[in-house]
UniProtKB/TrEMBL annotation, chain A:
The keyword Ribonucleoprotein applies. One of its GO terms (cellular component) is mitochondrial inner membrane. GO terms for molecular function: RNA binding; structural constituent of ribosome. It holds the Pfam family Ribosomal_S5_C. Its main location: mitochondrion. One of its GO terms (biological process) is translation. The keyword Ribosomal protein applies. Belongs to the universal ribosomal protein uS5 family. This is Small ribosomal subunit protein uS5m. PROSITE patterns: RIBOSOMAL_S5, S5_DSRBD. The lineage of its organism: Eukaryota, Metazoa, Ecdysozoa, Arthropoda, Hexapoda. It is found in: Mitochondrion. Keywords: Mitochondrion, Ribonucleoprotein, Ribosomal protein.
UniProtKB/TrEMBL annotation, chain B:
PANTHER family: 30S RIBOSOMAL PROTEIN S16, SMALL RIBOSOMAL SUBUNIT PROTEIN BS16M. One of its GO terms (molecular function) is structural constituent of ribosome. It is found in: Mitochondrion. Keywords: Mitochondrion, Ribonucleoprotein, Ribosomal protein. The keyword Cell inner membrane does not apply. Belongs to the bacterial ribosomal protein bS16 family. GO terms for cellular component: mitochondrial inner membrane; mitochondrial small ribosomal subunit. HAMAP family: Ribosomal_bS16 (MF_00385). It comes from Arctia plantaginis. InterPro entries: Ribosomal_bS16, Ribosomal_bS16_dom_sf. This is Small ribosomal subunit protein bS16m. SUPFAM superfamilies: Ribosomal protein S16 (SSF54565). One of its GO terms (biological process) is mitochondrial translation.
From TrEMBL, chain C:
One of its GO terms (molecular function) is structural constituent of ribosome. Coiled coil: none annotated. This is Mitochondrial ribosomal protein S22. InterPro entries: Ribosomal_mS22. GO terms for cellular component: mitochondrial small ribosomal subunit.
Length: 425, 132, 376
């Protein structure tokens, strides 16, 4: 908009000069200046900047009630002279005492013309326009949390040391940071901040804590230090996953957690993911059902982790051998825990749950949703596509094999029947 | 034009005449044949009753033409009185499954004749060159 | 090159070393001369006889941790979540028995057979067909349910002769119409290129080479026998037997070494690892194949006793009186063998001496233990 204003000024001033010149020629007078101010008065220099800006930015009463002049389309007052300095202009002249010191070293500087900077105007416009857009604080992808520069999901370092004891190797992740608004008789609506963080060393030690304060950083600090004092130890099976599947609940939040193979990753709620990373669990799947209240979720997951049993305990409870089958070992039965005394088949009651998963899940079953075919698979164009590309289905493989054999896409027939243009050439 | 499936979808009438024939699959400049049994009145573009083998008329790297024959099923259809088209009968003859087809002998004889003629022509030309 | 090798192996087995030295001068990589099962005697009846099979399996010393180890060639792109079961004693025994069966399947040895003969079988001659075509016609019978080796595969040559195809063509056509998973139509470079094969062997990828050869070739093919022979000799010279133990290739390796009279290095390795019983089995195997071991008549009874004991995967920590008796018998037997039949006497005697000293200590320890427990 500023450029528009500038150009408008130029256009307005030009024809006036032109008229003046004509006048001079006609009258043939020796004095070639005019004292008339009439031609130079216009809308832009008649009114002060304040009023001009108001005319642009103001919103009518009725409009303000409707919510105009707010949000993304709002026009703000800007300094159009940004970046401009007295003594520096279109013509690049050195003014000692104004744009440069009078004495530089032992030399007395003199007014002189310097070579022109062709990019001056562009630079000025760039500086002036740099404040138009509102810029969010941008974080590097590593520092970023769950959502932009918001704190949840971001790391805030290890808890503060207590006396001599330092929390080496620990890292804290923010799980929740929210404002609690309370009405007070004397103060009106007051703001409190509540933070929930999890801290851990990635080797089995982790804890979570809450903190409340008037300011967000103070709440975070409190939460962090409290988490550092409530550390719990968790067994990590083979250094990558949990001991067994489990079901856990807190309030209306239910979580079904599954043990997974190496390389599976953390397929779960983002808060559970952060907790697992703090503990050092690498592979797990968790499904949340019911309420997804974050505090309940965290509490439920920690309770579930703490209530896990070791394989020896499970075997002792059942008084049966616990055997592991792995597909990569061709399902070789590997006894991982044996009780001191094993029951025989006759001693097992008829309706006892013998299925391992069912037993550790406390007879809860995870809902498996039916998988529907992709939406395009029933469409006619997909059938046409399949029919059309059927004949190309092996081309990629054949090209690869030819490249392996001959170094390029050719066959023994290429030598037998060379291309026509090749023959001519 | 999309080709009918290689085998098994053609309608089957027990008493209609059947024929064992070559059906061209493959694309432009690259012939490839299925040996199939189909109703005698059907065109080659229509679905067949059953595929009995394949024939690749283009010699491979080792200068061989590959023919696959499901002899068990061929015998079955012959027993049902299926008619065998000439090119297929020629292939069966070469395989030693049928007696050699007369047309094979004729082709061989004609090829030998042209070869002989070509040789004679060449010799004549040579003789002329030497005399001139 | 392969022809040259075969010829060498055929003509002068005695001065093999001398020829090998010449090769060393010309090219270091070609220092191993493969020897094939192409003599008068067929190894198959001996290899498949039950007592040889039992001994070979015993010598394989199957360790289930290694038999059921994680492999890279299982076709599993990602691992699967392990499953768990609660089992009673009886159920566990059943499961272990099933696993044992599976292990036997995994350890089934690739057959050792005589090299194949050329198929030269003219079915008919028809000179009237000369000139019919310049290309050969190959006919394959693709009748359902016929085994690859019994399939009709015949060719009509341009000169009108109808004949049965030779093994290489048969293999190619079988692979074309009934592809075997993992087998390639062209021979892989690692088998055709000597340098690549030797680089694999130098990196001790013996099992990989042997596994792939098993997939790519039939056991009676000359190239299979050549490659396995080179691999076995490479293992033998470097004494890397441990890499093949608990795999299906150890049996054929032992059979190869015994068949070609070069078990001394293996016996030395066995003595160094104090596996005297296995050494006795090996001498018994030699007696079975060649019948040239001194006082070989007493060996079968000893072998019977050895086979009755469980497999020793690790060195025993405590001995019973029966163990001591059996081991002393074995020791005597091996001593005799070293004196009369061995070609590495000094080294083997040294190893035996070392074993004896260790064994004495072990005997004292276990007898002392038994006394302490009040059993003696």
């Amino acid at each position: 908009m500023a450029t528009k204003i500038l150009t408008l000024g130029n256009i307005l001033s030009r024809p006036i000069n032109f008229l003046l010149k004509q006048n001079n020629v006609n009258s043939n007078l020796k004095t070639n200046f005019s004292t008339t101010t009439v031609a130079c008065v216009n809308f832009f220099n008649k009114l002060p900047a304040e009023k001009l800006w108001k005319s642009v930015t103001s919103v009518s009463n009725a409009g303000a009630k409707k919510g105009r002049g707010k949000g993304a389309g709002r026009i703000r007052i800007r300094d159009l002279n940004r970046g401009q300095v007295i003594g520096v202009g279109k013509v690049n002249i050195l003014w000692p005492g104004l744009s440069a010191p009078v004495i530089r070293g032992r030399e007395l500087l003199r007014q002189q013309r310097l070579p022109e900077d062709p990019e001056r105007l562009e630079k000025l416009i760039k500086i002036r326009d740099s404040m138009i857009k509102f810029r969010r604080l941008k974080l590097s992808p590593i520092e970023r949390g769950w959502s932009g520069s918001k704190l949840p999901g971001r790391s805030i370092g290890p808890p503060d040391k207590i006396g001599e004891d330092e929390f080496t190797g620990f890292d804290t992740k923010v799980l929740q940071l929210r404002a609690l608004l309370i009405m007070k008789g004397s103060l009106g609506r007051t703001r409190n901040y509540q933070a929930m963080v999890v801290t851990g060393n990635g080797q089995g030690l982790a804890g979570f804590g809450f903190g409340k304060a008037k300011e967000a950083p103070a709440a975070l600090r409190k939460a962090k230090n409290r988490a550092g004092q409530k550390l719990m130890h968790f067994e990590i099976y083979n250094g990558h996953t949990i001991n067994h599947d489990f079901y856990t609940a807190f309030g209306k939040t239910k979580i079904f957690v599954q043990k997974k193979n190496e390389g599976y990753g953390l397929v779960c709620h983002r808060a559970i993911k952060e907790i697992c990373q703090a503990i050092g669990i690498k592979d797990l799947r968790a499904k949340v059902e019911g309420s997804n209240n974050l505090q309940h979720l965290v509490k439920a997951f920690f309770i579930g982790l703490l209530q896990q049993k070791t394989h020896q305990q499970l075997a002792e409870e059942k008084k049966l051998h616990l055997v592991e089958y792995k597909s990569e070992n061709a399902y070789f039965p590997k006894v991982i825990a044996s009780p001191s005394e094993v029951r025989t088949k006759e001693q097992i009651p008829k309706d006892e749950t013998l299925d391992f998963t069912q037993y550790v899940m406390n007879d809860k079953v995870i809902l498996k949703k039916k998988k529907f075919p992709r939406f395009y698979e029933s469409m006619p164009h997909y059938k046409i596509f399949l029919r059309k590309y059927e004949k190309y289905r092996n081309h990629e493989k054949i090209r690869l094999n030819l490249k392996v054999e001959y170094g390029e896409v050719k066959s023994f027939l290429t030598d037998k029947y060379p291309e026509k243009n090749e023959q001519e050439a | 034009m999309s080709l009918p499936p290689a085998s098994g979808t053609g309608r089957y009438f027990a008493r209609a005449a059947k024929s064992i024939r070559l059906i061209r699959h493959g694309c432009t400049n690259r012939p490839f044949f299925h040996i199939s049994v189909t109703q005698r009145k059907r065109t080659n573009a229509q679905p067949v009753i059953e595929q009995l083998g394949s024939y690749d008329p283009m010699p491979n790297v080792n200068n061989e033409k590959l023919v696959a024959l499901n002899l068990e099923r061929i015998k079955y259809w012959l027993g049902k009185g299926a008619h065998v088209s000439t090119p297929v009968a020629e292939l069966f003859g070469l395989a030693g499954f049928f007696p050699i087809h007369p047309r094979s002998y004729m082709t061989a004889w004609r090829n030998r004749r042209t070869e002989r003629e070509n040789l004679a022509k060449l010799e004549n030309e040579k003789a002329k060159e030497t005399t001139a | 090159m392969s022809y040259l090798f075969r010829k060498l192996a055929q003509t002068n087995p005695k001065n093999r070393i001398h020829d090998a030295q010449i090769f060393v001068i010309s090219c270091r990589k070609l220092s191993i001369v493969p020897s094939l099962y192409d003599g008068e005697q067929d190894p198959a009846p001996k290899f498949f006889s039950s007592n040889v099979q039992v001994m070979l399996k015993r010598l394989t010393r199957p360790d289930y941790n290694k038999v059921f180890r994680k492999r890279t060639n299982q076709g599993l792109t990602i691992l699967k979540t392990p499953s768990y079961k609660f089992l009673t004693n009886e159920e566990l025994e059943v499961e272990l028995a099933n696993a044992k069966k599976k292990a036997e399947k995994l350890l089934q040895m690739p057959p050792v057979v005589k090299i194949q003969k050329h198929i030269d079988d003219v079915l008919s001659k028809d000179p009237a067909l000369i000139g019919y075509d310049t290309a050969k016609y190959l006919f394959t019978d693709i009748t359902f349910g016929v085994a690859n080796e019994h399939r009709f595969i015949i060719e009509r040559d341009p000169d009108g002769i109808l004949r049965s195809c030779d093994h290489d063509v048969r293999k190619r056509l079988n692979q074309t119409y009934f592809p075997m998973n993992g087998r390639k139509l062209r021979e892989p470079l690692m088998f055709t290129d000597q340098e690549k094969l030797y680089s694999l062997l130098d990196r001790e990828k013996y099992e990989f080479v042997l596994d792939r050869a098993c997939v790519q070739y039939e056991p009676d093919e000359p190239s299979y026998q050549k490659i396995t022979s080179i691999t076995y000799q490479h293992i033998d010279t470097l004494s890397k037997y441990e890499l093949l133990r608990s795999t299906r290739h150890f049996g054929p390796l032992v059979f190869y070494l015994t068949w070609h009279q070069s078990i001394d290095n293996l016996i030395l390795e066995l003595l160094q690892n104090s596996a005297v019983r296995d050494a006795v089995l090996l001498t018994a195997l030699r007696q079975d194949l060649h019948g040239d071991v001194v006082n070989g008549e007493s060996l079968p009874s000893l072998v019977h006793q050895v086979l009755a004991t469980p497999i020793q995967l690790t060195k025993p920590e405590c001995l019973t009186e029966e163990d001591i008796q059996l081991d002393s018998k074995c020791l005597k037997c091996i001593e005799k063998y070293i004196k009369t039949n061995s070609s590495m006497k000094s080294q083997q005697e040294l190893a035996l001496q070392g074993f004896r000293e260790n064994y004495k200590q072990l005997i004292e320890l276990s007898r002392g233990l038994q006394k302490a427990h009040g059993k003696a």
